[in-house]
Inverse folding.
């Protein structure tokens, strides 16, 4: 970023303000007329895109900034540089295409106005998140986006979506608070929250690692990073499909954006000899490992799903794992990073394109057949040739078929992983590279799982009986996305030249350019084709052995093993806390009067015997007895109550070994690990 | 003469209440107008002092030979801010109460004491020394007791007993401390900075008893036990008063005692501030945790008040500008948010008679305005930007870090999470869960609530964020000035 030239422009906050105002306008318009609303929605999503494109030529050598003093105590600062631009452009393009798609999507659904209102609030929040110059403003819009997207997830209002949305909400609030705490710490120790390198000002204590952990959790939850990804596979599928496309295609990238800003810019020390470098690379290393786990886990779990949207949601986790790995590499290698950041950004763009395309394609299928289970649809290709072709483009993109966009970024990512291994020779990263390739194979396998039964084969009854007509708007939006994918795949240099190079500036390395130049070398193509071929073999193997039908025991999931028990324990202890500090306190307060009256009667007995005796006869049983028996009773009842509370809180926790089904998928996981780690000969194969 | 005007906010409601009781012009048709008009006049009479306050000066007014030592009144920016906000809220609540208490048998008694409470609160905030404060402290106890027991059923009387006895203990403790401070030669009038230089055991004890006395009013652990029973049994406008404003008198008194009588140096040299901070921490956690398990809507709100008072209690013992700004800002913003929540809950109870949260499924569709206001105030409580709760959280967290207590930052955020856990289900039930049984159909007849109830609630809901999204955040700037005044910097 060029520090010297700064342009102040009021148009910058307008990018955020237009959708926010648009939300209210659309709500009002929706009540009046749906057609008007649909047209307006396209307009309101196109305007930010147009303003952004207008800014493109300006920000080549300057950065645009606009500050509004006094808002929210601290003041809001917006800025636009090329890194922000990449994300903002991605948000705006996908949103625009989705609002085109949405024109025909809703027919008779309830709460459409509400959906549009929160859709545009989310757009405003998403754009705001990336167009900010400091963490404070970023947090404000991040929260707006998180909260507004809750309504998109809960839209259907059935039990499953409410459950999924609640899980999302709890985790989003938790993540936001972790993020806020990190920001507060950063502000306190450095005196600024601007998105500039600041690691040198942090104290040399453990607090630094705490801050890093808070940022990882805060942004990681949004990005769907392991081990806080658990909301994603529930929440993304339940939303209406266009919203899923946005959630999976766009919004999880905002978590990635935060990670890039914090770990690749703020935590990278300014000079090479700086003290912070070991810290940055340590945190980068942690993120790389988390990225590897996320990548593999998402792909592995996607294999066993039957719901198309669920497969895509798990696939999002896996793909975000790729990106996070690259972000980690950029942090790990610091200023010596060659292709980490570049490949991360490249994959961000690519994943936004193909994942929203795939979700929108699934949306069309759902729109026409009302079925998402891959076992209940077949032979779609003959009925919907265009949709099938577009799906194939998206799939070719995501599995990295040469000539499509995913191929480019995956090759770059692979080079980055290899370079990170060579950087300090960490053995774990060496195995990570194998895991990377394995994930590529699994990705191909689970897409075969969608492609082969759903599109090929004989037509099933529900496909034969499609009644409603397809929508041209829908076709248009997925077609445009498909064109983008092919364009990037065929001309990878263009994206680099016009988008990545201005963003990376001095961080563009000769190696990265060289990788791009040699992108279509035989080695890479061969490896990509082999990956897909092995994926096909894995698919056939799992299909023949019927391992796809394996039902994954949810009791073994992270949620049931760790999060739910933790929450229950928290509630259990707060229950105890209340019973001591609230209930018992009230009781002892109430019994104070009894004690008081007892003593006053005792006093009367001493000084005025006659009267006192009469008083005592009147109250037949001694008060002190009452109190002691009362205390005993409450003691017994409170023990019972605590036991009851224990049973109540722990009834749905699955820690008992007795019922622990040692499911096949754990076995498979272990076997795969053994294969990958123990047999060196296999490496050549992969 | 100008100084005499300081008595206006105290006298106007008293005159209003007498007129309300005795004047039956037009067969009492205009009684509600009289009541609201009185409150409005009170607000205007507080505004008289704005020119003086804006120049940064204060007014002291003393009446000798009353109550042996004489009583005195003082208006500085702190008391001005409080009386202005309190009387403004009182206007909104009184408009609401006119409709809410329309068909109540004892509405005359309610409104008379409603006005007397206003007088008491004005006197409390305007008091210039400890004795005057004590006078109005006791008056408020008695007056607000009437509001608590308004329903006169067993539950209300029981809650009222618990409230009045505890408050009496607090009042007696207050008196003890006044005596101790007086005989030790410490000035009883409020002066910025405080003047206690050396700590003798008796003076320290007096400080603690002061704190106990005000803790009972403010609902700080371990004296909070009257609050979750007394606030819910009162009629909703009274609940809003009690939770929104009355408990703030405790916080205001504490701030006066700490910063204007004893001084920061005394408390720091005593070395007990960490204990008080821990008590604040327990209060925060307790209020939030108890609210999670509570199924009754108003009780949940009452427990939430305890947690929020914990924030305020914590803020005053961190002794820096940031924390004190957040503290005073939260006194005001919590008053707005909690009044809004109680009034919205009141509309729901008024229309449907349902108090249990589980029974309120789908109510957002039938009462959209009420529930949107409720949701906004609830989001403010949780502390989302751009609501006021977020500013408080930010300022208090900064203060805690500057004071070297990062653990309280974690506690704030944990408490925010817990606030989310108990406020979100209400919102979600209201808007996103469809009612299962047919019973709920009865309130699908539409909102059908008079503007007298919706208007105050909407204004209060607007108040939870409007100042944050305009460039000049007036309450925050005022809080900052007050914090500087109290810290004498």
């Amino acid at each position: 970023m060029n520090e010297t030239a700064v342009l102040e422009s009021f148009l910058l906050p307008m990018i955020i303000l237009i959708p926010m105002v648009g939300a209210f306008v659309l709500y009002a318009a929706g009540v009046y007329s749906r057609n008007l609303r649909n047209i307006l929605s396209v307009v309101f999503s196109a305007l930010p895109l147009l303003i952004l494109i207008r800014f493109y030529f300006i920000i080549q050598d300057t950065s645009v900034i606009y500050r509004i003093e006094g808002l929210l105590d601290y003041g809001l600062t917006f800025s636009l540089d090329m890194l922000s631009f990449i994300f903002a452009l991605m948000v705006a393009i996908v949103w625009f295409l989705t609002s085109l798609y949405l024109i025909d999507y809703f027919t008779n659904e309830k709460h459409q106005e509400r959906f549009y209102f929160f859709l545009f609030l989310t757009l405003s929040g998403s754009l705001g998140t990336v167009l900010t110059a400091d963490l404070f403003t970023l947090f404000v819009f991040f929260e707006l986006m998180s909260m507004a997207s809750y309504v998109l997830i809960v839209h259907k209002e059935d039990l499953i979506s409410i459950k999924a949305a609640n899980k999302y909400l709890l985790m989003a609030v938790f993540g936001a608070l972790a993020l806020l705490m990190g920001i507060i710490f950063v502000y306190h120790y450095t005196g600024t929250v601007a998105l500039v390198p600041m690691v040198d000002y942090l104290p040399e204590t453990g607090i630094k690692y705490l801050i890093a952990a808070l940022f990882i959790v805060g942004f990681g939850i949004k990005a769907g990073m392991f081990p806080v990804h658990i909301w994603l596979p529930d929440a993304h599928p339940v939303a209406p499909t266009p919203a899923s496309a946005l959630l999976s295609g766009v919004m999880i990238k905002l978590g990635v954006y935060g990670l890039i800003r914090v770990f690749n810019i703020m935590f990278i020390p300014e000079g090479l000899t700086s003290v912070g470098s070991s810290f940055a690379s340590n945190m980068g290393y942690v993120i790389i490992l988390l990225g590897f786990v996320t990548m593999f886990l998402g792909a592995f779990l996607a294999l066993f799903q039957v719901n198309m949207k669920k497969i895509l949601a798990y696939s999002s986790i896996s793909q975000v794992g790729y990106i996070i790995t690259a972000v980690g590499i950029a942090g790990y290698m610091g200023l010596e990073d060659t292709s980490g950041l570049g490949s991360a950004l490249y994959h961000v763009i690519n994943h936004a394109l193909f994942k929203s395309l795939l979700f929108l394609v699934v949306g069309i299928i759902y729109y026409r057949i009302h079925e998402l289970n891959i076992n209940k649809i077949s032979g779609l290709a003959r009925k919907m040739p265009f949709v099938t072709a577009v799906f194939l483009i998206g799939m070719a993109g995501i599995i990295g078929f040469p000539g499509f966009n995913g191929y480019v970024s995956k090759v770059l990512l692979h080079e980055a992983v290899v370079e990170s291994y060579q950087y300090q020779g960490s053995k774990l990263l060496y195995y990570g590279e194998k895991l990377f390739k394995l994930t590529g194979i699994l990705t191909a396998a689970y897409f075969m799982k969608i492609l082969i039964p759903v599109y090929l084969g004989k037509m099933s009854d529900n496909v034969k009986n499609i009644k409603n007509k397809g929508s041209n708007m829908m076709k248009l939006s997925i077609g445009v996305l498909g064109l983008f994918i092919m364009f990037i795949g065929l001309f990878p240099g263009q994206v680099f030249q016009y988008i990545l190079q201005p963003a990376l500036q001095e961080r563009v390395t000769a190696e990265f350019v060289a990788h791009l130049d040699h992108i279509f070398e035989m080695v890479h193509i061969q490896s990509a084709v082999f990956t897909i071929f092995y994926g096909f073999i894995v698919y056939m193997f799992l299909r023949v052995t019927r391992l796809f039908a394996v039902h994954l025991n949810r009791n073994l999931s992270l949620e049931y093993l760790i999060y739910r028990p933790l929450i229950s324990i928290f509630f259990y202890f707060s229950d105890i806390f209340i019973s001591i500090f609230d209930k018992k306190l009230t009781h002892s307060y109430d019994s104070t009067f009894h004690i008081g009256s007892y003593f006053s009667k005792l006093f009367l007995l001493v000084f005025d015997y006659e009267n006192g005796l009469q008083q005592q006869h009147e109250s037949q049983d001694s008060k002190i007895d009452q109190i002691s028996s009362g205390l005993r009773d409450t003691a017994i009842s409170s023990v019972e109550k605590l036991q009851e509370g224990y049973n109540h809180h722990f009834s749905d926790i699955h820690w008992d070994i007795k019922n622990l089904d040692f499911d096949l998928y754990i076995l498979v996981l272990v076997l795969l690990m053994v294969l990958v780690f123990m047999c060196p000969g296999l490496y050549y194969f992969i | 003469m100008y100084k005499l005007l300081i008595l206006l906010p105290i006298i106007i409601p008293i005159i209003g209440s007498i007129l309300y009781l005795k004047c039956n012009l037009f067969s009492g048709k205009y009684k509600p107008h009289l009541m609201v008009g009185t409150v409005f006049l009170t607000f205007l009479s507080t505004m008289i002092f704005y020119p003086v306050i804006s120049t940064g000066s204060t007014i002291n007014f003393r009446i000798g030979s009353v109550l042996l030592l004489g009583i005195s009144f003082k208006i500085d920016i702190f008391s001005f801010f409080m009386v202005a906000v309190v009387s403004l809220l009182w206007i909104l609540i009184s408009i609401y109460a006119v409709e809410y208490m329309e068909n109540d048998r004892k509405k005359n008694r309610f409104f008379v004491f409603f006005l007397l409470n206003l007088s008491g609160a004005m006197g409390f905030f305007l008091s210039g020394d400890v004795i005057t404060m004590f006078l109005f402290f006791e008056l408020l106890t008695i007056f607000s007791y009437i509001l608590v027991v308004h329903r006169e059923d067993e539950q209300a009387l029981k809650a009222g007993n618990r409230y009045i006895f505890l408050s009496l203990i607090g009042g007696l403790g207050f008196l003890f401390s006044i005596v101790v401070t007086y005989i030790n030669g410490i000035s009883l009038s409020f002066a910025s900075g405080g003047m206690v230089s050396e700590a003798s055991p008796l003076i320290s004890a007096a400080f603690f008893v002061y704190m106990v006395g005000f803790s009972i009013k403010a609902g700080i652990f371990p004296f909070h036990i009257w609050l979750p029973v007394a606030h819910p049994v009162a009629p909703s406008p009274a609940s809003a008063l009690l939770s929104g404003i009355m408990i703030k008198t405790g916080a205001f008194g504490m701030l006066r005692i700490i910063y204007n009588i004893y001084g920061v140096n005394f408390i720091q040299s005593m070395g007990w501030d960490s204990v008080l901070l821990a008590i604040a921490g327990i209060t925060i956690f307790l209020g939030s945790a108890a609210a999670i398990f509570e199924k009754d809507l108003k009780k949940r709100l009452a427990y939430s008040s305890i947690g929020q008072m914990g924030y305020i209690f914590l803020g005053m013992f961190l002794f820096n500008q940031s924390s004190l700004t957040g503290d005073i800002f939260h006194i005001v913003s919590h008053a707005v948010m909690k009044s809004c929540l109680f009034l919205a809950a009141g509309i729901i109870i008024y229309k449907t008679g349902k108090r249990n949260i589980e029974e309120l499924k789908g109510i957002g569709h039938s009462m959209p305005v009420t529930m949107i206001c409720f949701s906004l105030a609830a989001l403010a409580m949780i502390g989302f930007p751009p609501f006021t709760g977020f500013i408080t959280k930010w300022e208090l967290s900064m203060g805690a870090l500057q004071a070297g207590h990062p653990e309280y930052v974690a506690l704030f955020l944990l408490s925010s999470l817990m606030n989310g856990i108990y406020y979100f289900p209400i919102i979600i039930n209201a808007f996103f869960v469809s009612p299962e049984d047919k019973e709920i159909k009865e309130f699908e007849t539409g909102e059908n609530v008079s503007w007298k109830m919706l208007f105050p609630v909407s204004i209060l809901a607007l108040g939870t964020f409007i100042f944050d999204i305009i460039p000049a955040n007036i309450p925050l700037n005022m809080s900052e000035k007050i914090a500087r005044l109290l810290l004498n910097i």
Chain A has 26 helices and three strands. Residues 653-664, 680-686 of chain A have pLDDT under 50 and may be disordered. The CA atoms of residues 541 and 547 of chain A lie 8 Å apart.
